[in-house]
Predict the 3D structure of the following.
Amino acid sequence: MKSLGLAGRVFAVALALAVGTAEARPLNQVLGTWRMVSAQLDPDGRNVPAYGQKPNSLLVFTEDMHFIEVLTDASIPKFASNERGGGTDEENRAAMAGSIAFFGTYTVDENGVFSGNRVEGSTFPNWVGSERTRQDLNFDVIGDRMIENFQRPEGTKVVIIWERVR
């Protein structure tokens, strides 16, 4: 076996350090892109679909600890005017009630389990600046499925089932 030149030795050391660093970091269980399978409001009571029978929603957790969540009901009718700012009161109400989008940062604990988030921007302005901990929001990852349990500030429980996008 030929000996490695200086460049080869530098590369080998850098590779060993990178592998060692990656192994030292805990697995981030929520990392990746998730597609909504179902969402239920008040699962212990009324148990109604939160985003219709065909939710069309994505949740993305990035490696640099940012997230973006877009929740939509695919059955919301299009605006007759075909202009985002030209909806009727009824169209605007349906769009607002049937969808929400927000983004921010998140944290995981030493075991890679989701531990909280902070909302930096949202289509619902009241959420901007809010922070959620495990008391309000949990993500349980089981293989390629994730179950989100969220309690709204007024007390309504929401359970969302996500599937990892491959």
Observations:
- Strands lie at 32-41, 48-49, 58-61, 66-72, 99-108, 114-122, 131-133, 137-142, 145-151, 157-164.
- The CA atoms of residues 52 and 75 lie 7 Å apart.
